[in-house]
Every structure is written in structure tokens, then in C-alpha cells.
Amino acid sequence: MKKHLLSLLLLSVAAGIVAAPLRQPNQIRQYGKEEGMMLDLNKVSLGTLNDVEEKKQYLSTVQLEKQRVQNYMLRQVYENAYTLYRRGDYQRAQEMAQTILSIDPNFTQASTLAKQASHMGAYGTISESEVIEAKFQEANRMYESGRLVEANEKLDEILTIQPYNSKATAWKNRIDKDIAQEYTRRGNVAHEKMDYQTALDNWYNALLIRKDDPTLVNKIAQTENLLRKQQVKEAMEQAMDYYNKGQFLESYAVFERITKIQPGDQRVQKYMSQLKDEIAQGYYTAGNRSYKSQKFDTAISYWNNAKKWGADAAEMDRLIKNARNAKEDALRRKQEAIRRAAEEEQRKAEEAAAKAAEEEAAAAEEEVETVMVEGDGLTPLTPGASGAVLGPDANNTTSGIGGAATRVSAEASEASRQKYIEGLDAFNQDDYERARQAWIVAKQLDPGNTDADLGLRKVEELTGIR
Length: 466
Fold this sequence. Notes:
Elements: H1 2-18, H2 52-86, H3 90-103, H4 108-122, H5 128-144, H6 148-161, H7 166-192, H8 196-209, H9 214-244, H10 248-261, H11 266-292, H12 296-308, H13 313-365, H14 387-390, E1 397-401, E2 404-408, H15 410-428, H16 432-445, H17 450-463
Antiparallel strand pairs: 1-2
Helix pairs in contact: 1-2, 1-3, 2-3, 2-4, 3-4, 4-6, 5-6, 6-7, 7-8, 8-9, 9-10, 10-11, 11-12, 12-13, 15-16, 15-17, 16-17
């Protein structure tokens, strides 16, 4: 952007300096506020270009057009700068030349003009003819020492200052001829060594100078043909080497490169057709292997590639559909297995919880509740401690009263036992009266309930109540 602003500034300065006497450059329409000499791409749409290469080519064309416009404008400004130089306004001529170089550093004429204007501004007493003569002498020394390109550049500097200097023009034509001969010689040497690319590079450089040399044109045409054959031969060897190693994709890529060098080669087309079949078969086989290994996504990818390389599209689509169905089935089976495993885990957890609950309930039922009796305080008073209730014949309990055995029914024995437990619970809660009443009833139900007897004696000891 800085360059574009400088170019705009340059145009305004040039217009103010030369005014009417100088030829004004043609006005170039400006697109945008800061683009100046450049095309405005903000409104350019690439949406209609479908291919990436087409877009690249389009942008390249736009860039070339921008460069062409810039070169045209710089040339107009250079002419104004040169006019200022011819008028003796060296300072402003130098400024304009330097501005041109800030936009295009490779503008050789502007570089020469800037140097010369600077020199003339610093040494105004030295005439231009003396500067030109000094440059002629320097160009001659370079020519004599074989530095033809540098001598030619020095003559360009002279022609920049004095475009119509006949002596410089004649010398330049002579040196151009010598340079063309040297390029031609180097091309001939390279051609003898079968280095066709180097030969062509040198001959094309010569052709830039000797544009109408039919002999040189013929040599270039023949060598271009030889170079193509050489490139095709080398590429064919590389392609066959890849093929023999089983690297079919790499081999095919090299054959494609050959078609760009030498289009329409029937032999190459035959190889490429055969390679496509083998590549497609390779992808097809790889897809089958992946399918058998249940790598369904990989198999689908292989079969898609096989289709791209010419395999039967209908068959590949059928295989791809089968692979997708198999993938869905495998996924469903996996999900079902996961579900079943989760259900089994839940069932086991529930069974374990139920078993633990049963064991806890059983343990609660078997828990022994104790009442301490006289003695050392360690004798437990437990339900069924005597054989009256929990004896070997609980349903036919007998008790001796006055030496005579009295049979107690099973129902009375069980009721006596429950009353004993009720009294035991009250005793453990320090409710001795309730415990005494319960044990009295227990004795009434089963006079042989010795546990109730023990309980009553304990209550009597604690309370003094009979």
C-alpha cells in the first residue's frame, strides 16, 4: 500500500513540476481509494470458476494485468523524470527516479537516471559530455577484458542519458552480436555433450538478440525434439522401474507426465490403460481382505478407489452397500451384547443384594438378647434357656407340681414362651413391673417355664416386690 501511495504522490508531483510544457501521462482510471495504479479485486468474484487450477490461472492473469498497468505508469513517470533531467533540474529528476525505484527496484533506466542526476547535481561543473566519455572508456575497458555483459550495461547507461547517441548504439549492436555468438557457442558445446536443456537455454538467450536468425531457430526446433525424446526415454525407464517394483500409482503418475511431454503416444496410452486395470484390481482385492477382517470402513474406501480407477461401478456399489449393511449389523450386535452384559451385571447385583438381605434378616432372628441373673452377673437369661420350651419335646412339655407331671399343650407352651420374650424385652428396658406381669402370665400358661421363674426372682431381687 505504501508503494501505491508513493505512486499517487509521484503522479501529482510530476504533474505540478512539468505543468504544460511537459507531456502529461495518460490518465489511468483508479479503482478504489488507495489502489492507484492497481486493479481493484474487491468486486471480482471467482464463484463461477469450478476448478482450483482455473482459479490459479485467473489470478495469475489478473496479476500480469496489474503488472502491465504498473509498468505503463512507471514508464510515463520516467519520461517526465528524464525531461526534468534534460532541463537541468537534477534534484527533482533524481527524486522522481528514486520514487520509481521504490515501486520497482528492477527498473534499470530509473536507477541509471537517479545516479546520473545525483552526480550532475553534486558536480554541476562537469559537463554531460565528460560523463558520457568516461562511461565510453569504462565500457571499452570491460569489452577488452571480455566482460561483454557489463560493457553492454554501461552502454545502456549512456543511452539512458542520451537515447540517440549513435556511437553508443553502434557499440551496443556490436557487443550484442558478440554476446549472441558467445551464447551460440556455449549452446553448441552443450549440444555436443547431449545436454540439450543447457543448449536450449543458451540458444534462446542468443535468439533474444538475433531474433531473425533462421539457422538458430532450426537448431532450437531440432533440439527441442531431441530433448523431448530424451525426457520421454528417461521417464519411461523410471515408470517401468516403478512398475516392476509393484509401485503402480507412482508408475502411472510418471506416465501422465510423459503424456504432457509427448501427447498421443500410443505405447504410453496402452501402458496407462493396463496400469489402471491393475490398480483397480489391487484396490478391489484389498477391499475384500478388509471386508473379511470386518474393517468395513477401510473396505468401502478401497472399493471407492477401485471405482475411480475403472472397476465396474455397479459391482463396487453393491459391495459398498453390503459393507455398510454388515457394519450396521455388527454395530447392532455389539450394542445388544453390551445391553445383555449390563442386564446380567444388574441381575447378579440384585441377587447379591437379596442374598445379603436374607442373611441379615436371618442374623437378626438369631440374635441373642440377654438378661443378667444372680451370681457373677454373667449368666444369660435367654428365651428357651430351660428345656421347658425349647427342649426335645416342645409340644409335649411337662412340669412337675407337687411331684406330679402336668402336660402342657403346644399352644400354651408357645404362648408362655412369647410372654417370656415380652417380659424379657421390658426387663431390658428397665420396665420391671411390665416384665414381672408378663412372666407371671408365662408361668400361668406353662408352670414349667423355668426361664420365667428366673426372671421373676431377678425382678424380686431388684424391686423387692413378690
